[in-house]
Write a structure and sequence with these properties.
There is one protein chain. The chain has about 450 residues and is mainly α. It folds into three domains: about 120 residues; about 80 residues, no CATH class; about 220 residues, no CATH class. Helices cover about 55% and strands about 10% of the residues. The chain has 22 helices and eight strands. The strands form three sheets. Strands 3-5-4 form a three-stranded antiparallel sheet. It has a three-stranded antiparallel sheet with strand order 6-8-7. A two-stranded antiparallel sheet has the order 1-2. β7 and β8 form a beta hairpin. α1 crosses α4, α6 runs antiparallel to α7 and α11 packs across α20.
Length: about 450
């Protein structure tokens, strides 16, 4: 497990190392700066197996501009230093000259395209790489606090694995490993002012999200950050029974199985049953009864969402409830918390547009003018540099993407859209009103997108 060496122990081990190898202390001191960030000779030196592995398998081969034999010698000198230091550090010495370390040095030196994948596999096989969990997925590029807390998680994993003699290759290890990291992320820490690491990471991500865009982007995003800080509610809410009624009904019907057409669409009888249950989704007096799922846009949106959120799945010619969907039936609050993160497109241009549209809805008061929303979102997208072949998207392209999230919110009864036509001015005016339940669902959707 991680060891701490006093300045006296470090100095003694370096002196002993230099008795027969005058260049060794300089090489080792340079390595220790990379491994443990040792800049002050008077401070204790902390070494973890994870940091040592990262140095040997990535930093040494990729950052030291020297012939291969020099890199191998640096690794060997570091191993001898760890043996001389003792105090538990000798347990790490073998890693410096192991077959795995030599293989990694050779792969990077040969400029093997698979070297990066070998590094990822080696770190994962060690069991010290904090995995993504149901609580948090680590970002490839992290903020300062996230990187620091991730390093803390590696140390907890190391203490657990080596303290209890855990075999990372054993059956069930990954499940136990993910559980330990999840518990670490949720556990309040005195040094974080009583906050949990998860709260600190989310706070940092939210601040970065609102700060990194253009001025037009920040004007939409920054005002809603305080509202996004609160985590999803747990337990019962008195008003939660009416949340996302159309989707809840779809899942209830899926418990018995919903027949599908040969093309995988919902069958005609079911489509008509849906519009009878939710008449606001279809103007039956004008258009008569629908014939296909594609005619009823809200139902199509809900069907797609149920599959994307892994609540319903196809089995033969039927749409059936998944285990995840079954676990959410009868628990409206958990159902909302599970569905909300899927309301905004996951990535790319559509995701950027939709997160701004949702932020504008949340920060716009009881009602938001459609034209005003579209103008603001378009201006922010253009200012942020989105383009295709050098051409910025026009307002209608941006609006079309924004409506991907808004239509879905309407289908879930989270947003109400009112449209009026002024005959004298020959101008139409549309307004969006977010429902009380919709306010929380859209907040959770934007929080999931902004905080990752």
């Amino acid at each position: 497990m991680p060891v701490e060496l006093s300045p006296t122990v470090v100095a003694r081990a370096l002196a002993r190392l230099g008795e027969h190898d005058l260049e060794a202390p300089g090489d080792v001191e340079g390595a220790l700066e990379l491994i443990a960030g040792r800049e002050d000779d008077e401070a204790p030196l902390e070494i973890s197996r994870y940091d040592l592995q990262l140095f040997l398998w990535y930093q040494l081969p990729c950052k030291l501009l020297a012939p291969p034999e020099v890199k191998r010698e640096v690794a060997a000198r570091l191993g001898r230093f760890l043996e001389f230091a003792g105090a538990g550090a000798e347990a790490y010495a073998d890693t410096c000259t192991s077959e795995q370390t030599m293989a990694m040095l050779q792969a990077w030196e040969a400029e093997d395209s698979a070297a990066g994948e070998l590094l990822r596999e080696a770190l994962e096989d060690s069991g010290l790489e904090p995995p993504d969990t149901d609580v948090l997925a680590w970002r490839p590029v992290m903020g300062f606090e996230e990187a620091r807390l991730r390093d803390q998680a590696t140390r907890e994993l190391e203490a657990w694995i080596e303290g209890e003699g855990i075999d990372p290759g054993a059956r069930g290890f990954k499940r136990r490993q993910a559980g330990l990291v999840s518990e670490f992320l949720r556990r309040p820490q005195p040094e974080l002012d009583g906050r949990a690491p998860l709260d600190v990471v989310v706070e940092e991500r939210l601040e970065d999200w609102a700060r990194d865009g253009s001025k037009a982007w920040r004007e939409i995003a920054a005002p809603v950050v305080p509202e996004l800080r609160a985590p999803p509610a747990q337990g019962a809410e008195p008003s939660s029974g009416d949340l996302m009624r159309p989707m809840a009904w779809l899942l209830e019907e899926g418990a018995a199985g919903i027949g599908l057409t040969q093309t995988g669409a919902l069958n005609r009888a079911f489509v008509r049953a849906f519009v009878e249950r939710f008449p606001a989704m279809w103007q039956a007096g004008t258009w008569g009864p629908p014939h296909r799922e594609d005619e009823v846009a809200p139902l199509r949106e809900l069907h797609d969402l149920s599959r994307r959120a892994r609540l319903l799945r196809r089995r033969g010619r039927n749409l059936v409830l998944t285990k995840r969907g079954e676990s959410l039936l009868g628990d409206p609050l958990a159902f909302r918390n599970a569905v909300a993160p899927n309301l905004i497109a996951a990535d790319g241009f559509a995701g950027a547009v939709q997160e701004l549209a949702v932020a504008a809805l949340l920060g716009g008061g009881p009602s938001v003018d459609r034209d005003e929303l579209e103008v603001r979102v378009h201006a922010a997208i253009v200012a942020d540099g989105w383009n295709a072949a050098g051409e910025s998207p026009d307002r209608y392209e941006v609006s079309a993407c924004a409506w991907g999230a808004i239509r879905l919110a309407e289908a879930l009864e989270l947003v109400v859209y009112d449209h009026e036509y002024d005959r004298e001015a020959r101008r139409s005016r549309g307004t969006f009103t977010v429902t009380p339940g919709g306010q929380e669902a859209l907040r959770l959707a934007l929080r999931a997108r902004a905080a990752g």
